[in-house]
Write a structure and sequence with these properties.
Chains A, B: It is an enzyme of class 1 (oxidoreductase). Chains A, B: It catalyses: L-homoserine + NADP(+) = L-aspartate 4-semialdehyde + NADPH + H(+). Chains A, B: InterPro entries: ACT-like_dom_sf, ACT_dom, Asp/hSer_DH_NAD-bd, HDH, HDH_cat, HDH_CS, NAD(P)-bd_dom_sf. Chains A, B: This is Homoserine dehydrogenase. Two copies of one chain form a homodimer. By secondary structure, chain A is an alpha/beta fold. Helix content of chain A is 37%, strand content 25%. In chain A, strands 7, 8, 9, 10, 11, 12, 13, 14, 15, 16 and 17 form an eleven-stranded mixed β-sheet that branches. In chain A, strands 3-2-1-4-5-6 form a six-stranded parallel β-sheet, sandwiched between helices. The longest helix of chain A is centred in the first third of the chain and has 17 residues. In chain A, 52% of the residues are buried. The interface between A and B is large, with 63 and 64 residues. Strand 12 of chain A pairs antiparallel with strand 12 of chain B.
Chain lengths: 437, 437
């Protein structure tokens, strides 16, 4: 499959990731040519503003403002689709595949939303899609799941897939910051967008986990299938109490086979401090895979960022140049034909839970609450009510009550939530988090 | 490259790993056939004793006692070479390749000692060798280095590659055991061989690191190129003092580009407790890769064991069945043609050091020792001499002195060692370990 003729590629988008790809292809040109078996040449770049100065853009590259120039260029075999969002990226990918070009992309939202249609179109056109960069750029997890672990029935994936949330949770605890302050810091440092909703509400992590779930369990899932909860309700107090009890709170994305059903959730979760996954701080990501043969195998690294993401795109480009992508993509297409697992209804998820309630600081409150839990068959493991919560800024006659339950179901907790919300003693925001020991 | 005809393979050896491979191929047969694009069939097994009962051996498999039966069987395309040691494994692999058969193997010692010759023979016969299982079975590190990270100049590998040593060091600290007791426990639990020399003296880890160094830095290295030190001189006291200072001691295998030279060492090393690599306990392995684009990316999992190793062998078998190995192996062969890096002479390695000296408990000893260090331009960062060392069983008028140095060279330390050994106040065993902050 090797060739002495160069591989001509087009970059759609020359922003953070696109310029990172150009930078790597330029600085590592010699090594990459050896590993790929041929020279890799950026022959065209599509951008919105052709007059902007662009670092790392090789001399002689055609700069276009229209995808048509790529579609119509018969020299271009591979299109690196490096713009975000669905529109116009979806259209560009469909047109590239229809024009007989293979595609690599870092666009997670697009692969999540339209991956199966794009894969079908690629198959129909005998083309391929490489998408290692779409999930956890600095961690080669798609390759691990689709190649290295293919002898395994994967039993679970547990992952931190959103660097923004992990950064915010880390800073809150380390710096004793409130959520809002840590978010502002993340925005100032470029870890969070001006509109951080998709990161902090769990959407981004759920989209990534959905992509991995398709590959690891041959099961297509959508956001509605998830028990999904963001980090925006977490208070510093929760992180502190959890730490006292030996836990870190992480936005944990989990897909797990349990009794022949697939449990999937993205929730802030208490994780024992001694587990590796609890020790991943800042903007880093981690994916812990449990396979029936390999046991636990764990991958961690940068979740995003220019060069880590570009590193994954370049690996896909090299894989394409060698001919390896053609093989891998066929294998992915075949696996997607396998019988999917049924998704466990949310109500049947079984975990221990952490509850933090803001309650009136008066007699009989604890009795009222534990009565609700008891009637819902939720057994209590521990209760903690500090006289003066460290972060009680209000001084409004309320107290913070933390209850840890024994193993129970999401359904029972939801029923209890409804009853608790009707109690007169419950004031302000409460939070409920699962515990992963 | 896919085909509807089954792939016929032979297993050479049906011990721990061989029966694990048969077990996975049997229990995951359906999934594996989908991923591989064809059925994978064990058509022949070569063993020493054909009458031994063998679990997981599929019905109808031919059991031979001679490799000739495999060599002469034109139906067999792929030979899984799953016996350890050099002889007769080397001969079997050469004959398999000469007979036009491809090979996968878990034999680390063989790939270390004769990999380049075997690779050349494979190339000459247009055959391939898969060897993911040869290094850290439960961690797909060979795939990561040769495929996922090919856009990077790898700058360093830091790894725990010997599960036996890691288990012993973990148990010593956790259970307050002496080295000899922890070794006995490792042997009782099957983590260490009756003759543990290759594990505890660093040979095993160095062989594995040499294989990774070839792949990551295109530089062939042999055991003599390493600064190599085993764990057998480590006392419980060292682990305890290190812990007090915020370090774990791990048998760390390091290959690092520094000033365009390759530093390679396998030594018990003090590692800051907050680093992920320090938190890998028991028989697990870890490989932390630093690449110029990807940054830090870390892989951890089981280092050995029946099913983790077999998982890697099966992944190689599936890669072969799909045609991916042919591509990857060509890429590995091309990379091996690249210019090697010069190896840094041991004397020029620059690190901080931990020194533990057993000295006479009398005046002027510290002055004598610090005078030697000072004259060798070794600057001291901290000194610790406890009145009653926790593990001083001897009560023989000696004291344990722990000195932490600032950054200096291995050469200066070696010169100081020579002088220190001549001092009358030095008694019994001393130890010197590098520090990796």
């Amino acid at each position: 499959m090797t060739s002495t003729s160069p591989l001509n590629i087009a970059l759609i988008g020359f922003g953070t990731v696109g310029s990172g790809v150009a930078r790597i292809l330029s600085t590592q040109a010699k090594n990459i040519a050896v590993r790929a078996g041929r020279e890799i040449r950026i022959s065209r770049v599509v951008v919105r503003d052709p007059d902007k100065a662009r670092e790392f853009l090789p001399a002689g590259v055609e700069v276009s403002t229209s995808i048509d120039d790529v579609i119509d260029d018969p020299q271009i075999q591979l299109v690196a689709q490096l713009i975000g969002g669905i529109d116009p990226a979806f259209d560009y990918m469909k047109r590239s595949l229809a024009a007989g070009k293979d595609v690599v992309t870092a666009n997670k939202a697009l692969i999540y939303a339209h991956g199966s249609e794009l894969f079908e179109r690629a198959a129909a056109n005998e083309r391929t899609i490489g998408f290692e960069a779409a999930v956890a750029g600095g961690i080669p997890i798609i390759g691990a799941v689709t190649q290295a672990l293919t002898g395994n029935q994967i039993l679970s994936l547990e992952a931190i897939l959103n660097g923004t949330s992990n950064f915010i949770l880390t800073r809150m605890l380390d710096e004793q910051h409130a959520y809002a302050d840590a978010l502002k810091e993340a925005q100032r440092l470029g870890y969070a967008e001006a509109d951080p909703a998709m990161d902090v509400d769990g959407t981004d992590a759920a989209q990534k986990l959905a992509i991995l779930t398709q590959l690891a369990f041959s099961t297509p899932v959508k956001l509605d299938d998830f028990v999904r909860q963001g980090i925006d309700g977490i208070e510093l107090l929760d992180l502190q109490v959890a730490a006292d009890l030996g836990y870190k709170i992480k936005l944990l994305a989990t897909a797990r086979l349990q009794n022949k059903r697939l449990e999937i959730s993205v929730q802030p979760t208490l994780i024992s401090c001694d587990r590796t996954i609890a020790q991943i701080d800042g903007a880093d990501n981690i994916v812990a895979v449990h396979g029936d043969a390999v046991g636990n195998t764990t991958f961690s690294g940068a979740g995003a960022g220019q060069l880590p993401t570009a590193s994954a795109v370049v690996a896909d480009i090299i894989d394409y140049a060698t001919g390896r992508t053609a093989v891998t993509f066929q294998s992915i297409l075949r696996s997607s034909q396998q019988e999917p697992w049924p998704v466990q209804p949310a109500e049947e998820l079984r975990r221990r839970y952490y509850l933090r309630l803001t309650v009136d600081d008066r007699p009989h409150v604890l009795a009222d609450i534990t009565d609700v839990l008891g009637r819902n068959e939720i057994s209590i493991s521990s209760v903690r009510q500090d006289e003066t919560p460290e972060t009680d800024e209000a001084g409004d006659g309320t107290a913070r009550l933390v209850i840890m339950t024994h193993t129970t179901t999401e359904g029972r907790l939801r029923a209890a939530d409804t009853e608790l919300s009707k109690l007169a003693c419950i004031r302000g925001a409460s939070i409920r988090l699962p515990i992963a020991d």
